[in-house]
Design brief:
This protein is an alpha/beta fold and 284 residues long. This is TIM barrel protein.
Length: 284
């Protein structure tokens, strides 16, 4: 497995500085955030070339946005840009394009799944020549209601989208905080995992008892190894399932400068995550 990180942690820094840091720190890859470091489809090739010039592979490119936005004009605009990015990303030889399904609160559950599946199937068809894989991250969204972010949601999507070029950016940290066993969940979708997010979650049981699941302050995202995930077990399971892709650290640990605070602390967090994952992989 390769180890990389998601560049959103450094969205306040130019991409050249970010890839220089990644290379000097000993990372194998980076996952580039569109909003922070690419902006428009015509800049994809230059961003990818820059990363590769530093000896890094580009594991994936990620584009935030609610693909099921209830505002039809916003949805249409986002999907047009998504298709343009998909074409550019495929032509640049990047293997994975990560997007977010979102949700339309005004539509039924089935209508949401049907609509997103129809769009995803169209993207797959339009990028057949490049073979680009599309993946959704199981981030539940700002209101914890995005479709396709739970085991049942994945079943609904994969029933509709059977092409193996559609899969998951599997992030165990989100599953922990919504009460889903990440090991059991991964086993059920092991053949549809395109990339793994290396992020952990810590839960303060005393605060949870005081405020309940709908309260605040009882969970925090952490760097891998600083939360509840048993990473030796998790990565052994992934390897046993045949996964040999990229572990992409998504650094959202407030103890190490996130979000957008002390730059040296953020870099130290990335280094700690890299060292920890390297150690775990060396012992599997």
């Amino acid at each position: 497995m390769k180890i990389g990180f998601y560049t959103s942690t450094f969205n306040d820094r130019p991409l050249e500085e970010v890839v220089d840091f990644a290379a000097s720190a000993g990372f194998d890859a980076i996952e580039i955030d569109v909003g922070g470091h690419i902006k428009t489809p015509d800049r994809v090739e230059a961003a990818v070339t820059l990363a590769r010039s530093r000896g890094l592979s580009v594991s994936s490119i990620t584009y935030f946005g609610n693909q099921l936005d209830a505002d039809r004009d916003k949805r249409r605009e986002l999907r047009t840009k998504t298709a343009d990015f998909a074409k550019a990303i495929g032509e640049a030889g990047v293997p994975i394009f990560v997007i977010f399904p979102g949700r339309d609160d005004s539509a039924s559950e089935d209508a949401n799944y049907d609509d997103f599946a129809e769009f995803a199937i169209k993207l797959i068809a339009e990028t057949q020549s490049s073979g680009l894989t599309f993946a959704i991250e199981n981030w539940p969204g700002p209101r914890d209601n995005f479709i396709g972010t739970t085991p049942r949601g994945w079943q609904e999507l994969f029933r509709r989208i059977t092409d193996p070029r559609f899969g998951l950016e599997f992030d165990p940290s989100h599953l922990l905080r919504i009460g889903v066993d990440p090991y059991q969940a991964m086993e059920a979708v092991k053949d549809r995992i395109a990339i793994l997010h290396a992020k952990d979650t810590a839960i303060d049981k005393d605060v949870l008892e005081a405020v309940g699941y709908h309260g605040k302050g009882w969970w925090q995202y952490k760097l891998p190894g600083l939360g509840l995930i048993d990473w030796p077990r998790f990565l052994r399971q992934a390897r046993g399932a045949g996964f040999d892709g990229t572990l992409s650290i998504e650094h959202e640990d407030a103890a190490y400068g996130w979000p957008g605070k002390d730059l040296s602390a953020r870099k130290e967090g990335e280094r700690l995550g890299l060292d920890y994952l390297k150690n775990v992989l060396s012992r599997l």
